[in-house]
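A further point concerns the way the authors explain their paired sequence and structure data. An entry of this sort, consisting of the sequence and the corresponding backbone structure tokens, reads as follows:
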Amino acid sequence: MPAPAPSPVPPAPAAVDAAAEPTAATSDAPAVAPGGAAQPAAPAAAPEPGASFAAEAKRLFRIAACGNDSEIDPELATIVAAHCKTIRKRMAEFRARYFEGGRAFFDALVPDDAPRTVVYPFGGGDLISALVAFPDATEITTISLELAGDPRRINELPPKHLAASLGALRVEIGGLLAVGSNTSENLSASQKNDLPAQVSSFLMGLAAGGYEPVDMRFFRLGPDGAIQYLEQPEIDAIEAAGRKGKAKSRKGDWSSPNFSEAFANVEIRYRKVGDEQIRVHRHLGWNLADKYLTDHPELLRHLEAKGKVTILTKGASYLLWRGDFSKIRDYMLGHLAWMLSDSTGIPPVHARKAGMVQETYGRYDGAFLEGAESSGKRHSDDFRALWQKNKYRKLPFRFGYVDAVGQPHLVVTRPAK
């Protein structure tokens, strides 16, 4: 099946040199043809929707994600150098293990006709894993309980506070730069950081993969699921609402963010360093449980409009094994053209009913989380049977959860041909 056309990516804003003299192409005066007849001026391009935070994205890319060595404020140089010494060491190890060492595996695994539009439910701050598996994706959507974060504070934090926030960030990213994974505790705590931890994690993923940010905007979803970019007056109004404008935790036991609701959902436009093609990553802070999706159906409408997609799920706490996550599971089964997961993905009983086949890699002897093994024994038994039935396929590294005895494993779920 040929891959569907990717969702359109809005063009990056054109750079404008404010000091440049107007020319015939940019002046309001009509152009004059060689024969002397005045020609109407070309219409000015309509401004792009939404307030741009490109400058903040690039500053965070330098300071928090250590993505380049561009000049920074002298009083921050020592702090950032110490932070980046640690981050770049971890990043180099991750790059060698996955972006370089795993390239041949993923190139052989992912079919050429897999859609370049990728949806990653339960993705946390883990853009990096999507870039490892799908480096040619043109659109990646991650969804998790964590909200993106306010990027403006990177312009305001005094050196002492920046050092503390960077130190907290190094803890809060957890195993992101080791195995592309993190704990719920770290992700929840990161919502209190003065730096936007989710955005910073995404930018680390870009840096590790050899990409760079071009622009960053924030948005909400309309009732039909369409993206509505936030203009600066809208952001100001949300923040002026005080407590009413404060971002709310998407789950009762999750830390409430210390920023406004305006910064819940982010779009980062990026490109491969040295390349002109603009790609887009969007993150939505959303609870994927059935009750929340019933009360807030905009997300499913947004995802359904993408048509057939490539799906990635890993480290998802076995939520897709549960009955109260049926809506997102049904969406995935109805729209996946090809899916990669660990055992926290689609259980075999649901895959079979939807006409899917599942291919296994590595070994699986039980759920990584003890609670899932006991409460979801039926699904774990089915996965054990699936591995026993399928031929053994080698998996050279961990990608997602290991199993109960520490074995790496992966599952490909796809429609039966």
The two ends are 10 Å apart (CA to CA). Residues 87 and 170 are 8 Å apart (CA to CA).
